[in-house]
Specification:
The protein is mostly helical. It has three domains: about 100 residues, no CATH class; about 120 residues, no CATH class; about 150 residues, no CATH class. A hairpin with a 7-residue loop joins strand 3 and strand 4. Helix 1 packs antiparallel against helix 2. The longest helix is centred in the middle third of the chain and has 11 residues.
Length: about 500
Amino acid sequence: MWRALAILALVGGVAAADGPRTTAFGFDHTLHDRNVVVSGGEALACGRCHSENKGKLVGKPGHSACFGACHGPAPQAPARGAKVVTGDRQRMCENCHSEAALAAKYAGKLAASYPPYTIDPDFNVAFGHKQHAAVTCAQCHDVRDKPAKVAVHARCAGCHDGSGGGGRGPAMSKCIGCHPQSVGKPQPAQLAAVINSVTTTFSHPKHAGRGPLGKDCATCHAAIRDTDDTQLPRPTVTSCGITGCHDAKAAFATTSACTRCHERAPADRFDVWRPTLRFEHRGNHEQVVKTQPCSSCHPLAASGEVQVGGHAPCAECHAEDFGARKPAICGACHNSTEPWRRLVTDRAPPPRTEFGATLDHAKHTGECTSCHTLRTASSALRTSRGHAACTGNGCHAPASGAAPHLTECTACHRLGLADAREAARMQAPWSVRAAFDHDTHRTTKNGNELACRACHTDLGGADVLALATPKKATCLECHDANKTAFKATGTTCKRCHGGAK
């Protein structure tokens, strides 16, 4: 009797404000077990209510599971036209039958509306894929377009027969081994739901028909078979490309057709990972610069300008990063990583070059300004970006044949040359590098354009670093005791020689 009263108090609910409930309250396994134990009884085995036969659950718990030794005699069908249940017993019956049905007049069979479960389940499923490595994936997962309707436990019964040995699992009647309670602190482990971003476009049946690799789930899901974790890892872009499938030969490349799989942008907000790491030839890539020709990453266009070789040169080392959830290197070239966008190389180049160019000025007797045309916020009269300064006069154009050819990159470019040049000029005795500005020295006192060679009279030497600094005599025409500019001699030395030693 005490058990019955405890359960009645437990499951009693409040009727909806607009009428009796049309669904059952539901049965709470955890509270039921607590009340049984508190009342002095032993916890009930799952098999007390859930019948099992040859590894399969047989039907749903009926009146025999509740009434008799626990909750008194089973209810009898009332006379037709009478109320089904009256009094306190109605609260217990509302575990499985709706309040509205119980309050109605009996008209035959009384349906049970619980289960199916419409509230949070009382038990989780503790399942480890690594523990089931010997089981074929298809034994549990049906990837066909119209999978067969198979009871969940029927997939397990073939192995969990309780015989032990030979890879056989514990008996199906050992429910608690797979179904821990889903409440309490800390809450037991349960399979975590993940967002599948390719649901609408990806087809397991189509991929399963692509030969042996497609039929083997581990081709893409090897990481799942190697873990018993509850957060199941999804396939990455890498797993799609390294299998020999999406390699731009057997199928479209993963790095060139993102929207073929990721077709939908989120409707409201998508927190995309935006890496900011800029590509540098120094550091990790310095060995590549020393051992690989520049053309392996930078092919020349028909105009002679340098191009970016795409993902292929990077994939050999960074294939795993291309498929990562939070890639580290995409920001070297892209400002965005959303897979549904048509990504372009839109990351601006660094303000300063890592290389720098050197040449023999004595062999380049043309006008200085044909090459030194670019002005930036930090410098004036630098050479223009790219090969425009070299091909504009037809000198080193692709078809001219003039040596060195544009493909001989190291003939002019050397890693770290620009920084070395700047450091050498700044450290030179009586250097004017810090204070001198070419733009303010472009005209003479007569307003005429001042030729570069008016100051740079000595351009000999094949190494740019060896170019002679203009002599003070070239300054005197303008720095003539404040008639045009301040005097070049006297106490004003630091106005030009800011880095004097």
